[in-house]
Amino acid sequence: MESISVTADSGESITISPENMGDMVAFMSRYACAIMEVETKFNVLNAQFNASKSYNPIDTIKTRLKTPESIVEKLRRRGLPLTTQAAEDNLTDVAGVRVICPFVEDIYLLADYLLMQDDVELLEKKDYIAKPKGNGYRSLHLIVQTPVFTPQGKTLVKVEIQLRTIAMEFWANLEHRLRYKKGLDPELLEDLGGELRECADICESLDQRMGGIRRKIEATTTLLDAADKEWQ
Q1: Which residues are catalytic?
Q2: 89-136: per-residue pLDDT in tens?
Q3: C-alpha distances in angstroms, 99 versus 7, 70, 124, 165?
């Protein structure tokens, strides 16, 4: 593997030799496999709900594996050794899985079923739905640990999971694009903060209203099913 060059925030170019980074290929492979493991677990849950309830609690699954350059840069910013061991010990977002659901209820349902599995260990949970961030960001974040089996044996690998609704995903993507758009005046961004927060509130209201509509439909369907059984 060739040397890795990263550009720090200061503009400084940093070159990291393969010897200092350790076996980066094997390291990245373990995290890629952990992503596949977690993604498969969610796909299986989605399929099982479809089979038993004729309903899919998952709209989309997205995955992300940090690049070696991003890993090195994050270690450097934290003043940590530029090694794979330091990354394993201190970074929790090398592997990322984002699950996008139709309704808020689906988020907690999927999280509960995932954490029931005996090969998934919850390390950290941050509920930004119950307590949104100051800018209006909402999502359920889980840091889990799951085993990956390699020719060298079993390794426990951390995966960051984000669960959010379609409305939360829509807001987060646009907020990120607008807030980090190059060349924007900082004062303008500050002024837009209130509008973005208001848009987040609108998305939250939308999630609540759509969830209410869903519950009304399900309640009506349940009553109709009960009535049909009485006539049989």
Answers
A1: 160
A2: 999 999 999 999 999 999 999 999 999 999 999 999 999 999 999 999
A3: 31, 23, 17, 8
